[in-house]
Amino acid sequence: QVQLVESGGGLVQPKGSLRLSCTVSRRISSINLMAWYRQAPGKQRELVATMTTGGNTNYADSVKGRFTISRDNAKNTVYLQMNSLKPEDTAVYYCNARISDFTPRGFSDAWGQGTQVTVSS
Q1: Where are the beta strands (DSSP E) in the chain?
Q2: Cα(22)–Cα(19) distance, rounded to whole angstroms?
Q3: pLDDT mean for each 10 residues of the chain (121 residues)
Q4: DSSP-derived pairing of the beta strands 115-119 and 91-100
């Protein structure tokens, strides 16, 4: 079973930066899709950024140009660099790994425990 551990959250002022890390218990080069999600109080969980094994990335419109997803295969770690943070970025951020398998859906999702990001002056 794949385990994901996030770190790097905290309190930051508007226009500040944070880098989140997600360490995975298996080779991330073998994982089809890595992603970051976030969930703000009273809102549904939303997709923030994705990265395929081939290195293709995708971002939510609300974070394009400010957030960057990247990975270090040697460390089995995925990162989310967040710049120019806004109060509306405040949320719990979750790391996700989508892994191909033989279940009816053809894949399974693994989640980290989440890390809180608070943007406030």
Answers
A1: 4-7, 10-12, 18-24, 33-39, 46-52, 57-59, 67-72, 77-82, 91-100, 107-111, 115-119
A2: 10
A3: 94 98 92 95 96 94 98 95 98 95 90 97 95
A4: antiparallel
